[in-house]
Every structure is written in C-alpha cells, then in structure tokens.
Amino acid sequence: MNRFVVRSVKQCLVNGRSYYGSSAGGGGVHGSALVGRSVELSGQRNGGVAFGGFEWRRMMSSAPASMEKAPVEKKEKENSAAEDTKGKDVVASSYWGISRPTITREDGTVWPWNCFMPWETYKADVSIDVKKHHMPQNFMDKLAYRTVKFLRVPMDMFFQKRYGCHAMMLETIAAVPGMVGGMLLHLKSLRKFQHSGGWIKALLEEAENERMHLMTMVELVQPKWYERLLVLAAQGVYFNAFFLVYVASPKLAHRFVGYLEEEAIISYTEYLEAIESGEVENVPAPAIAIDYWRLPKDATLKDVITVIRADEAHHRDVNHFASDIQFQGKELREAPAPLGYH
C-alpha cells in the first residue's frame, strides 16, 4: 500500500513538472486554470507515512498578457467613439437601404424636422367661416350636441383663463377621433375587401393635423405634472368610449366630433380675444409652427392661433359632412373624401 501511495505522489509531481515545462516552452496555455484542486493522500494508520493535506495548485494565467490587455483597449476605444458621436446626427446603417436625403427649405437652408416634410406643409385657409353651426335636427344630433356642451363645463371650470393649457388639453382629445375612425375604416376595408373612398387617409390626416397642433402648443406651454395625469386619464377614457360609439354608430360619432370642433373654434376665438386685449402676451411663433403653416419669419402667437382655428373649422366641416352622408343611409366610401382639405 505504501508503494502505491509513493507511486501516485511521484506521478503527480512528474505531471506537474511536465505541465509547467510545456507551458513555458509553448508560450502559455489558453485554458481554464485549475485552482484550489487538492489531492489528499493518507497512509496507513498503523505507523505508515501519512501525507495529510497535500495540495497541488496550478496557479497560471488563463491567457497571455497581450490578450488580457485587448478587452481593456477595446472598451476604451468604444468609449472614445461614443464620446465622439455624442451630439451628432444619428446615421443609420446602409445595410437596410434607408437613409434620409438632404432636404432643404426654399431658401436653401437645411430642413430641421423629422416629424413632417416640406411637401406636407401648407398655408391655412383663414377665410373659412368660423361661425357656421349645424342645428341639431334629430335625437342623435341633440344627444351629441348636449354631450359636448356638458363636457365643456368642467373643462372651463378647471382651466378658467389659462388659455394655453386649455388649448393643449383640447388637442390631446381632438387628435383621438381621427385615429380611431381611420383605424376602424381600415379594418372594415380589410374585412370586406372594399375601398374606403379615401376616408381612411382623410381621417388619419385629421389626426396628424391635430397632433401637430399639440406639438405647437407644447412649445408655448409646458404642462404641469397634474395636467399630465389629467391627460393620461382623459385619453384612456375618451379613446375607449369613442371606440365603442364609433362601432355602434359612426354617424353619431362624426356628429359628436363636429360639435366638438365647434367648441374648439369658440375656445380659440376666446384665446385670440385675450391676445388682442393684451391679457395674453403676443409672443413670437415657435419655429415648428412657422415651417408647418408656412408663416412669415416674424409671425406671432396670434398668427398661430388664427391658423389653428381655421384648421378646426375644416375638421368641423369634414365630420358634419361624414355624418350627413351616413344619415342619408349611405356609406362613407360612396362619397369622395375631402383629402387635403385644410
């Protein structure tokens, strides 16, 4: 037994010596080191030699020094590259074949907006009649009209003379119906394999136009935290409620939006009166509004509110028109949609 133990120890020592020699001659072994692995050898209890607690360790580096430095150098290069690109335009990989071409204004300056392009801008028709009103003629008309009037009361009580905040809140609501209507008409077109008569695009254009109103108002008025919470709650309730109404009766939904736009015109008219009276400062127009509505460079808040009010008047006409079509027993696709009606 003692001979067996001695032979095992010799074999371990020989293997260890040959391992170190091969690693020194070969320039290092690129593998995982065995650390803390022990071989305990015990002899006979009856007076034999006992090798208690003998430990064999291979304390080696798993990689040469040059390879240890490589990840550190790579990380430093990545950090420096990130710092160099900070503040610069994001450049997409050409692998997907998608890249933004150089777009300029009419005066040759670079177009600064990604949310809309120059060919999507327009001059608002401010000559439109903002006093036009659809007289309720049946039960659905009266229901839609009185619902809108009822909802205006808490809004006026909450915002009072804070016209900018009121307008901002109004736009978060006004941008919902076009999206819901366009989405449901889109699904209907897919289900029935029918064209929409251009109404999908017309309603989505309306939703996008209302969203641009909101983006403009945010440049003028920064919402407070509780106003953001109010928007969150109102959007959740209004989206689902309008969705159900549109599924049940599209003509009621469009009539409701028509009256909602009439109230928006009234609100923006009050805003303009406050600017003209000096109650609200007539500050310079935001850059996004100047480019979107093609306003002059010296345009003011009054000019912005004037074109927004004109947009609301056009949305009023489109929705009352859509409701009239359906009250006649026809579908929207049977009448051409007023695309590009600004």
UniProtKB/TrEMBL annotation:
Keyword Electron transport part of the UniProt annotation: yes
Q: What is its main location?
A: membrane
**Which portions of the chain have biased composition (kind: Basic and acidic residues)?**
70-86
Compartments reported by the entry: Membrane
The residues that cross the membrane are: 167-187, 229-248
| One Pfam family hit | AOX
Determine the domain of life of the protein's source.
Answer: Eukaryota
Q: Which reaction does it catalyse?
A: 2 a ubiquinol + O2 = 2 a ubiquinone + 2 H2O
What cofactor does this protein call for? Fe cation
Cofactor binding remark:
Binds 2 iron ions per subunit.
Instruction: Specify where the region named Disordered lies, as residue ranges.
Output: 65-86
Q: What is its EC number?
A: 1.10.3.11
What family does the entry list? Belongs to the alternative oxidase family.
Name of the protein in question: Ubiquinol oxidase
Q: Which organism is it from?
A: Hibiscus sabdariffa
